[in-house]
């Protein structure tokens, strides 16, 4: 994490030229925010310099400031005139972490300004920054949302494949196993699935608001893309529910044997 709290900063001009920013560049930006160039600033919300800049220099609504700096949150979408407050969660792929302990990212998004915050690292955000460094997409705020949500869902997809493999293995072992180690393994997986579902269900509702609300800078074809991304999330939730039901049945069978 950066000592000054700015993890990533970029501006994209009308010619689609990308310029990377550091904390010192923010002083020059103050009068240019929400103008023609797209600016993305990604902060560590626990850093004092981040808090000071977002509070005093970001020029955004106080409701948005509070949302970017709040400690405890859950997936949601709030529309502020023609801007979006968005909180999303991604799979935790940090070392020595549990995947179901999901990592949140908070975003304020307008047509020309994106301010986002995190406490823990999120690979989908890193992917986005690396893409911009290579002068690739996204080039506007709506494409930013599509890129980020696609990356988040792709990693959820990958994690779901691992979970399905574990669930199938447990289902097969249940036919001839009744030891305590197996029961513990099964209970642990069920807790993991329930925890994931707890976070993914509100994320589905947050995603839905992105394409149901009228935002001038999100085009109709982009709303269709967002709907398709959300359909993938809904499928994952349904698969989680199916796996939870199967594990519950296996647990019930074990109780009947005792």
Explain how this protein is built.
This protein is an alpha+beta fold. It has 2 domains: 6-136, Beta Polymerase, domain 2 (2-Layer Sandwich), CATH 3.30.460; 149-257, Methane Monooxygenase Hydroxylase, Chain G, domain 1, CATH 1.20.58.340. It is built from 7 helices and 7 strands; from the N terminus they run ββαβααββββαααα. It has helices at 26-29, 48-57, 62-69, 123-133, 141-173, 180-212, 220-257; strands at residues 6-12, 18-20, 38-44, 76-80, 83-90, 103-109, 113-118. A 7-stranded mixed sheet has the order 2-1-3-7-6-5-4, with helices on both faces. A hairpin with a 5-residue loop joins strand 1 (6-12) and strand 2. The longest helix is centred in the C-terminal third of the chain and has 38 residues, at 220-257. The chain is elongated. The chain starts with 5 loop residues before the first strand and ends with a helix.
- Tell how many strands the DSSP assignment holds: 7
The assigned structural class equals alpha+beta
> What is the terminal-to-terminal distance?
52 Å
Strand line-up in the sheet with most strands = 2-1-3-7-6-5-4
The CATH architecture classification of the largest domain is 2-Layer Sandwich
Percent strand equals 15-25%
Dominant shape: elongated
């Amino acid at each position: 994490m950066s000592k000054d709290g700015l993890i990533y900063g970029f501006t994209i001009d009308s010619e689609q030229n990308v310029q990377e920013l550091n904390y010192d560049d923010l002083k020059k930006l103050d009068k240019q925010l929400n103008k023609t160039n797209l600016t993305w600033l990604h902060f560590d919300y626990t850093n004092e310099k981040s808090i000071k800049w977002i509070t005093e220099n970001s020029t955004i609504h106080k409701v948005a400031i509070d949302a970017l700096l709040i400690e405890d949150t859950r997936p949601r979408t709030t529309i502020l005139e023609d801007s979006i407050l968005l909180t999303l969660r991604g799979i935790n792929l940090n070392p020595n972490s549990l995947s179901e302990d999901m990592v949140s990212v908070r975003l304020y998004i307008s047509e020309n300004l994106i301010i986002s915050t995190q406490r823990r690292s999120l690979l989908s955000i890193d992917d986005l920054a690396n893409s911009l460094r290579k002068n690739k997409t996204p080039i506007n705020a709506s494409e930013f949302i599509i890129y980020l949500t696609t990356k988040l869902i792709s990693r959820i997809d990958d994690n779901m494949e691992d979970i399905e493999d574990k669930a199938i293995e447990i289902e097969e072992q249940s036919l001839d196993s009744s030891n305590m180690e197996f029961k513990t393994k099964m209970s642990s997986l069920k807790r993991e699935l329930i925890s994931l579902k707890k976070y993914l269900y509100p994320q589905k509702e947050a995603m839905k608001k992105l394409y149901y609300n009228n935002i001038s800078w999100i085009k109709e074809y982009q709303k269709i893309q967002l709907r398709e991304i959300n359909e993938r999330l809904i499928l994952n939730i349904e698969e989680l529910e199916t796996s939870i039901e199967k594990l519950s049945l296996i647990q019930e069978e074990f109780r009947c044997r005792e």
